[in-house]
Design brief:
- The protein is of the alpha+beta class.
- The protein folds into 2 domains: 6-35, no CATH class; 40-159, MM3350-like (Structural Genomics Hypothetical 15.5 Kd Protein In mrcA-pckA Intergenic Region, Chain A).
- It has 3 helices and 10 strands.
- Strand 5 (87-91) and strand 6 form a beta hairpin.
Length: 166
């Protein structure tokens, strides 16, 4: 009889704890990759610069397990920014960025927080703020969760030009 505190995954017995489900997912993903049958979920995001007329936006496809810091790097390229100013993300009342007591707001680490931990369902959104002086805010909306055999980041559509700010 199997003990209540363990779970069998492909004949490997593991103790149950908070990391078992993540470990199970990683094991299954590794097995699928080895079999060459991998179909990966990607998040299709629409990123819109608030207040822009005409609208300035990009549609990108990214891996759901990107950290928010990695998403920041993607957004910098996609929007044409130069990564020369501070940035942060907001989801409700929670702020994500580089921890800094000088800001007076508690921030969760953007380097340890994954995109799929803050966006779970289609139509959910986060706010990406770039350049605190000008406060360029972007709505980042999860438009779709798609399956693909491709990996990486893809800018698949967009409109408008962003002024380069140095």
């Amino acid at each position: 009889m199997e003990p209540a505190a363990s779970r069998c995954i492909d004949n490997v017995r593991l103790p149950l704890n908070s990391g078992v489900m993540r470990l199970e997912r990683n094991i299954r993903t590794t097995i699928k990759k080895m079999d060459g049958l991998m179909s990966t979920d990607v998040f299709r995001l629409k990123v819109t610069l608030r207040g822009s007329r005409p609208p300035i936006w990009r549609r990108v496809e990214v891996q759901p397990d990107l950290t928010l810091f990695q998403l920041h790097q993607v957004l910098q390229r996609a929007m044409g920014w130069t990564d020369s100013h501070l940035h942060q993300f907001w989801r409700g009342e929670t702020c994500y960025g580089s921890p800094d007591a000088e800001f007076g707001t508690r921030r969760e680490s953007e380097r340890r927080t994954r995109l799929d931990e803050v966006l779970h369902r289609v139509k959910e959104r986060i706010v990406y703020e770039y350049d605190f002086g000008d406060s360029w805010e972007h709505d980042v909306v999860l438009e779709a969760i798609c399956s693909t055999s491709e990996t990486g980041v893809h800018v698949i559509d967009g409109r408008g030009h962003v002024l380069r700010k140095t």
